[in-house]
Amino acid sequence: MIRLPHRFNRLQTLGSQSRETLARTQVLERSWPFFLDLCIAAIGLACFYAVVRIAMFWAGTAEPDIVISLRPRALPLYAFYSVVRIGLAYLLSLVFAVGYGYLAAYNKRAEPIMIAILDILQSIPVLSFLPGVMLAMVALFPTRQLGVEMGAIVLIFTGSVWNMAFSFYSSLKSIPKELVEATGIYRFSAFQRLVQLELPYAAIGLVWNSIMSVAGAWFFLMACEMFHLGSRDFRLPGLGSYLQTAADSGNGAGIAWGLGTMVAIIVATDQIVWRPLIAWSDKFKFEAVESNKRVSSPILHLLTHSNALASVLRHTTTPLSESIYARLAARRERKLMRLAEAGAPAGRRRTAVLQIVLLVAVSGVVLFAAFQAVQLLRPVQGSEYLQIAKGALATFLRVNLSLALAAAWTIPVGVAIGFHPRLARIAQPLAQIAASVPATALFPVILIALVQIGGGMGIGSIALMLLGTQWYILFNVIAGAMAIPSDLKEVATLFHFTTIQRWKTVILPGIFPFLITGMVTASGGAWNASIIAEYFRVKNQTLQTVGLGAQISAATESGKFPLLLLATIVMALMVVTTNRLVWRPLFRLAETRYKLGN
Amino acid sequence: MPAAIIRAERVEKYYAQPSENRIQVISPTDLSIVPGEIVALLGPSGSGKSTLLRMLTGLSAPSAGQVYWHEKPIASADANVSIVFQSFALFPWLTVLENVEAPLKARGMEPAERRRRSIKILDTVGLDGFQAAYPKELSGGMRQRVGFARALVVEPEVLFMDEPFSALDVLTAENLRSELLELWQKKTIPTQAIFIVTHNIEEAVLLADRIVVLGRNPGHIRTDFKVSLPHPRDRKATAFTQLVDYIYKVLTQPDAKPPALPTTPTGKPVRDQRQMHYQMLPHARPGGIAGLLELVLDHHGKDDIYRLADDLAFEIDDLLPIVDAAQLLGFLTVNEGDAAITSTGTEYANGEILRQKELFRTAAVENVLLLRQIVRAVEAKSDKSVPEDFFHDMLDEQFSEEETLRQLETAISWGRYAELFDFDASRRRFIQPEKLVHETDVEHTSRTEGEIDA
Known about the structure:
With about 600 residues, chain A is mainly α. Chain A contains 24 helices and four strands. By secondary structure, chain B is α/β, with parallel strands linked by helices. In chain B, helix 8 crosses helix 11 (about 345-350). Chain A: Its main location: membrane.
């Protein structure tokens, strides 16, 4: 669900990784019947009901008070806690994404349902998962702290997993047919196919989406580490809660310290983790000729040339994988022998019957729970429906206004940067640094300033959405402008096109596919950001404005589950509908008419 | 005759359609591969060569019929076969050595033995010293050598090759072909039989001990004969050229008797595509047809197709659709592998562009049902436009999805060229062409043709 600010840096690789960033295209092209939509909606409602039911049942233990210290000395420990949390959540996301993508790609029957579930889940904002996840986790783990920690980790996970799952799935679906046939004819086991074909093929997409996911995790860190749920106040020691507390008390120095630490960590992660990863994943590029543009990383160089590491690997993973291969080959032979002796496999009918029984049982339970969830909506009053409708409209306008504003400044600037290599050399690193700061961390500063000059949350929320999402559009526009062939530009010069004609016939059509990619990502991000952008605590007061995001946040904080459910449904509905009605047709147009080359 | 290693018995491939009929790709076919021979499978595109190869290897299961490996069903047998792919299908992230070792790894072989065998086979195919290279660092020919090494390292009983040389340049292909032949003849490799799919007739005659020619719609065996020319074979020898000429004749002649129609156990009707409503449009561009006719005219109006192909350095997949199209439009007649230009054909080849279009228009409306129907539908509608889906659905009854799209694409290209109709790509509708005043007409048409040829 999170397609939020990340450093779309290293523009030179942007073109070649369009397959990965366009992972959503595959979904936008997918159509599924209305019936399936209903099923998914029912399943979603059912899950919600189940979690809330369990959560309400288990809730109600006292909590120890954790006081967030604002002294800078506390920062290293807090930062460490936050990094561990994000790291664990990321690992969880990776494992889940690979498993989910694999199942979805290879199970024909489950595929459409699983992809539909992904599409809907990623349109649900993080905070809507919060009550269920948090209450369930606290109840699941007897040690209080562990429960809350697990809750925060799962929350971050829900914010970062979906795009990775999409990426892995679409990579699997686009593996060239002859490579798959080669693994078949040379008797690769599923394990060998995963290690030697599927994971390498998906590696580049996974790396890029990992970067996006972790950036998203930083964006929502404040929301995930400190929040109210009904009468309960959850807080975890961490960088996010530090920033939140500093904002709460209006402590300028605290905010500055927190921000500085966060930026330092992000820059360090980039150097220590992402750059080596990107450089390493270069070898998985599926291309016929070697490209000369490469990302270099001293750390990767160190790792690959380390004798110690090599010898460790030689004594651990190598023998292990050898024994796995030997065992798999033996198993395959035994299976063939049995097949040759037994002839046709028996007992197929029994499994079919079992499947049908299972299907009926599951759909029965789902239907019941969905019905119950709808019952949960009963206490919602007419006026509240009206409020939500109003909020939805306000947020819708806000999201689109921020998109329009972002496009208005990024298109000319992006085209200018893309057309002038010398300007690009100066502007690009600056933009990358600017984009690397999570907008949420800057938000308190901006809000305090806004309040002082008399602005309110209305402007503030648009500013945050803009801050969080403009980079997607900017970096995509730059890439698009760079991709316009120079002969097209020369034609425009040769025939003395007027400026308007130039933009209409060369530049806008040329950047169109890139612009759409950026806008889709930005739009999803802006919807998600609305939960923070429209409702924020600063200087001991809660600033909020009319909007769906504010309603979700408020409902979470006051523990009004029916209202939270309703608002979440409305938001998911709006996001999915916009994707279908607006972005999908535009994507198709970009793919057909405005595709440059081939 | 020695016992067959692989024997296909009445194998066929079809796709079930949602409606009552189904698309037959390959009609029931018997085929055996016996030890000691190189079999070449030739056929025009759309005759199911690759599909047949994949069924023989056990990669894809036939819709009906059975493939036997040493008289055991291939699905439960441990068939020792390899495939050399047209696209090489190497793993770009593995080194040359790792690529070659991968199949042995899958068989659970010891690391030391695995390495020894891989290096030996790399040596055999001439890749000594390239072990640590990645495929993307190699040229096409070197990459295909890795493909060969990987296929041979498992010591397959039957080596399958799916157009292995068609992605290579002429000289590299020639070089690799002769090296393969040498390995085979000197018995350097323990392979019992080689099965090669190709659309290059000369390649088949150069290599094969036996040639199987497939026809299409649906795929079926047209002829299956032995080649007893001694090696090394001389392309210029009379026996060689006669054989090539003969294969061209087989390929261009209509079937004397259509292949037997398969019967379905479920009682669903299987229709022979040639007896169906729409004829299959050959995927040729109008510009290509004009070019071919001019060439025939240069050859005094009549010549061997084989010689024409030679002149153009075309392979059959390139040439046959154009010949078929010219034949369909009545510009060319083909008899016994000889192409002869008709009187309209001559006029077409000599005409200037507007006259060419006129002739093409008349011929197309007269001979091509689909174009005739599109024109009539567009004229009949009050808004002078018909959605593409309408014709898509009709063609879908008869062709596979992929073929339907290609049929529509060809129809659009012909219709636009002949100015029978235009196609609005953003609304996916057939529309009436815009009539222009005469002065700009010439300019406009020449531009359109430029686009079609591009």
